[in-house]
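--- STAGE predict ---
source: upstream dedup step, 1 unique chain passed
mode: sequence only
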Amino acid sequence: DRIDKRMYQGMEYYPTKRENECLAILDNVLVLGSELKVLSVIDSYRTQYRGGVSSAVLRQEILRVDKSRDAWFAFAVDEATRERIKGKGLVFDWTSTKEGILRLWEVPSGNMTLDFSTGLRAHLTFVMDPATSVPEATTFGNAALASFGKNIPELQAVAKGFRFVAAEREVLGEIDYSQETFDQLIDFTTLLVKEVGKTPATKPSDTQ
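--- STAGE serialize ---
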C-alpha cells in the first residue's frame, strides 16, 4: 500500500510513500503537493482561504476565484522562481510575424474555473507584470490558437471555441465548447495518449 490516510484539523489527507507527493479533497477542490503544502492549504480552507497560505499573492487569487463552479485552480509564482525562468529565457516570440510575444516570467499569478454542465465552459485569468505586456501576450495567445486549429484540422472547432481578450492588467481566456466539441477534444486526447504509449523507449547509448 503506497498511500497513507492521516488526519489534520479534523480533515483527511493522503500522503504517498514518495517524497513531496500528497493529496487532499476539500469539497470540490483537489489539492496536490508536498505534505507541508497540503497542510497549509487545509489551514487556509478552515479559515475560508483568509489564512494558512504564506503567499499573499496566492491567497488573493484563491479569494477572488469563483468557487461555485465545478472545479477551480489558482497559482502564484514567487519572485525567485520568476527570476530563474527569466534566466532560462523562456519566451515565445512571434513578433517577426506581428503575432505577439509571451515572456513566461511576466505571469506572476492567475486562476481558472471549469463548468461541465453543458460541455465545457472555462474562464482563465493571467495577471501580467508589467501591465504593458498585456496586448502582445493576448495577441500571441490568439495567434497560437489559430495556428493550433490550422495545423490540426480535427481540432478546428476546439480552437474556435477558445479566445483571449486583453484587460487592464490581465489576459483573460474564455472557453465555450458544446458537449459535442468537448467530446471531440476528449477523443483526440485519448487517441494521442494511446499513440504516445506505443512509441518504443529509446535504448541508452553505450558510447561515451
